[in-house]
Write a structure and sequence with these properties.
The protein is mainly alpha-helical. It folds into two domains: 1-42; 50-181, no CATH class. It has helices at 3-41, 56-64, 72-75, 82-87, 89-92, 96-132, 138-169, 172-181. It is flat and about 80 Å long.
Length: 197
Amino acid sequence: MPRAILHVISLLLMVCLLIIVKAQPLNAQQHKSGLQDAHQKSYSGEERRVIKALSEEMIENYQQGRGMGLAKAAELNHYPGPMHILELKKTLALSPDQEQLIEQAYSVMHEEAVKLGKELIAQEMALDALFAEVKADSLSVRQITARIGELQAAIRFSHLHAHIKAQTILTKEQIIVYDQARGYAESPKPKPIRRRK
């Protein structure tokens, strides 16, 4: 290869290297600026919440005993939810006995979830107040957060338990129809239902 071509290639490589080196501090500065923006915006506006850890929507959902996706493990594994079963009762051709049993399962779950949800909101409010009033200490925060954790688990269990109960009330065929009506048609067919003895 002629010497002149090698010289041009060397010059081009040096220019490229110089451009890359010069761009690094700019990229680092942009990255640092982006991180600052993210940190500044991450909780922006949430300081005006009544309870800092809960959005208005979350508070309403807890007060109304809504599922909020807490029973996905059941719902997406062929354990239908009582509320959705009742919404699909004609599609599922529920018998009067099935409808009554599903309504009972929903009612028990809903009543329990509302009660627990209201207590969870009260505990979150108490936790928020500890910090707002500059009274937070490790012991009180540990106690309140432990209770919040228990309530979250109990709320989730009440929803999952209702799905378990509902699954034993429906036939295998109704569960297949339910899954299809809810858009889970691609999921594998449910395993045989364990009936209570």
